[in-house]
């Protein structure tokens, strides 16, 4: 029998370096954004304290409750082993192979075939699958998808993605409520201050958007590799990916828009051919993912 230590998810130096670079860039953005807010709205100790509380409070809340917020956005319910025995059995087996803590298991009642992982740490995470994906995939295909999602948790790229998304949400919040924060000062200086914050917020959102997309595309390829190696059946993961990507084109656009808050975390992009968002995809091209899995299959001698 192969030792458990050799069955753990393979480390990815490229992913580690990218996560480090994105984290440093986000840290610099947080500091710069906070400094601008303090300079514009922190003219008194009370207002400076208010700005600081808002910035830190929103960042901490989004990070700490990231798994809960993601599940709520999909209207997903956490299920116990007696409610979904086969699903839990698959995750138990994969977690044992990977030597990692078992995340919470959730199911979302939607025909859209997909899955995602979320959480701030491997010990505080959740893996969610939709009823649509469970109806469409075989047991081996679903296991490949679950291995892919668990790789996101083990690699901790979910945490970095959550922080990156938080900064964009914070910038959007300040943009919408900047007038309220500066409402007591409606003179010319107040208007200039709001304009400065508006411009900086747009720039911060744009940078965080680019950082999130660049990391998201690479981490999907990394999770595909890890999932294929941990199950030893890359062809099943490729089959699942092909099925889901094909069926996604038949999902109504309204249903796809409803999942926008967690689309960057999905196993497959929640897009159809008519979606304008395809230009800003969070996932690498399907052909690239399948080619990588085919190469791994040849290396492993899978039949």
Structure description:
With 303 residues, this protein is an alpha+beta fold. The protein has one domain. Strands 1-2-4-3 form a 4-stranded mixed beta sheet, sandwiched between helices. The N terminus is likely disordered.
Topology:
Layout: H1 4-7, H2 13-41, H3 45-64, H4 66-73, E1 76-78, H5 85-98, E2 104-108, E3 115-121, E4 124-130, H6 131-136, H7 139-155, H8 157-181, H9 188-231, H10 234-248, H11 253-257, H12 286-300
Parallel strand pairs: 2-4
Antiparallel strand pairs: 1-2, 3-4
Helix pairs in contact: 2-3, 2-8, 2-9, 3-8, 5-7, 7-9, 7-10, 8-9, 9-10, 9-12, 10-12
Inertia-based shape = elongated
- Largest sheet, order of strands side by side? 1-2-4-3
Helix content: 55-70%
**Share of residues in strands:** 5-15%
Order of helical and strand elements: HHHHEHEEEHHHHHHH
Spans where pLDDT lies below 50 across 5 or more residues: 1-7, 272-279
* Number of domains as seen in the coordinates: 1
What is the first-to-last residue Cα distance?
20 Å
- The overall pLDDT, averaged over residues, is 78
Number of beta strands = 4
Largest sheet: 4 strands, mixed
Q: Number of DSSP helices? A: 12
Radius of gyration: 21 Å
